[in-house]
Amino acid sequence: MTADLIVCGLGPAGRALAHRCLAHGMSVTAIDPVPDRRWSATYAGWYDELPHWLAPSVIATTVAHPMAWGTTPHRLDRTYVVFDSAALRDSLNLDGAQIVADHVIEIRYNTVTLASGTEFSAERVIDARGIARSPMLAEQTAYGVVVRRGADIAPLFMDWRTDNGTEPDAPRSFLYAVPLSAETMLLEETCLAGRPALETTVLRDRLHHRLRSRGIELTGSEPVERVRFPVQGGRPGPRRFGAAGAFTHPATGYSVTASLAAADTVALGSSAWPARARAVHALRSAGLRALLALPPADLPIFFDAFFTLPPRLQRAYLSGRTDLGGTAAAMRTLFAALPARLRRRVATATLGIPIRSPIRNGSSMME
Q1: pLDDT of residue 351
Q2: Using CA atoms, how far apart are residues 116 and 280, in angstroms rounded to an integer?
Q3: Model confidence band, residue 1 (pLDDT cutoffs 50, 70, 90)
Q4: What is the dihedral of CA 94, 97, 103, 104, to 10 degrees?
Q5: Which DSSP string do the residues of 278-291 spell out, in sequence order?
Q6: Number of other residues whose CB lies within 10 A of the CB of residue 359
Q7: What is the mean pLDDT of the chain?
Q8: Residue 198: φ, ψ to 5°
C-alpha cells in the first residue's frame, strides 16, 4: 500500500508536517532513527507567527516586551514565547501514522530506501532531516544554564554588553535570557553566526564571567544546554521542509515557528516557496553575509540600528517569509541608519563582493 506522504525526520518541522497531514485525512509514513526521542532543546519564537491550530498549552512562558541591548537598551514591541518542548512534541501527535525507526539512506523521487534495505513509496516524499554540519556552513553555537528565577534576572532577547571578559577585537557573543517556567530561567551565551562559530567551551567561560560580573553565582549543579547547528545550507523546494528546506532564517537561526506556520500549506500540496519567498530568502542570505563581514566591535552598533527600526520593519525582516516589500524596506532603512564607515563593508558583503575581514566573526538566537 502506497501512503499519501512519507516524512523523513521527526524533529519539530517533520513532526508538525506529519501531524497536519494526518489532520487533513492523509495516510502518512514517518521515518526517523529514534522516533520516540524527547526534545531537550529550547524552542522559542514570536507569538504573532503561531498558526491557529496550535494548542495554547504548548506555550510555557511569554514575554510581552522583551529587551535587547546593543550599546543601549531597546524595548521590543512584540510578544515572545518560549515553548514547553515536551508539550509541543506531544501536541503534534501522530496517531494513525505508520512510524518506522530506521535511517534513510536514499530518497529517489517517491521512493525511500532505508539502512535495513527496506523501501517505502508514497505519492509525496518530503525530507525534514535538517542540515548536516560542514566547515563551509556558518553555524550557531550556544552554552546555557538553567537557574532559579529571581528578581535580579530580567528577560533579554539579546544583550551585547561586553561584561563577559572578552577583548574588544575578539569575536562577539551575547547573553540570551528567557523564562522557561514560573520557577526557572535559561541564561545562555550565544554566537549568532560564525564560520567557524565559537566553541561551546569558550561560550561557557564567557557566560560564567558575565554572570559573576552581574552578581549571579552558579552552584555547578545547574542543568546545561549546548547548541550547535548550521544556519545555512537548506534548499527551497517542494520536497524539503524545515531546516532542510531552507526554513531556517539565515541571519537569526529561527526555524520552528516558520515551519509550524507553513505546515498546513505544505500538507495540502501548495507551494511554500512562491517567487517572493525565494526572493526574501536571497535577501536574508545577503544579510547573513553582512553579519559575517562586520568587525566584532561593530556588531552592537549594527543591532542598535536594527532595533531602532519601526516595529513593522523589524517584523518584516525577522518573520515575513513572503513579505518581499517589507524585507527590502527593512534592509534599506537599516543601511541608511548605519554609520557611514559601516556602509561600504555591509554593501560589499551583501552584494557578495569579497572583502577582507580583520578577524573571523561570531555572534545565537536560540529556538
Answers
A1: 76
A2: 40
A3: low
A4: -120
A5: HHHHHHHHHHHHHH
A6: 11
A7: 93
A8: -65, 140
Give me 178's grid cell.
528567557
pLDDT of residue 151: 66
The Cα 276–Cα 223 span in angstroms is 42
Answer yes or no: are the C-beta atoms of 292 and 195 closer than 8 Å: yes
Beta bridge partners of 6: 29, 125
Instruction: List pLDDT tens digits, range 100-153.
Output: 999 999 999 899 999 999 999 999 999 999 999 999 999 999 999 999 987 678
Residue 20 has which C-alpha cell?
497536519
pLDDT greater than 70 at residue 366? no
Element (H, E) at 262: helix 256-267
DSSP class per residue in 312-351 = HHHHHHHH-TT-HHHHHHHHHHHHHHS-HHHHHHHHHHHT
All residues at 6 or more sequence positions from 352 whose CB lies less than 8 Å from its CB, including other chains: 286, 289
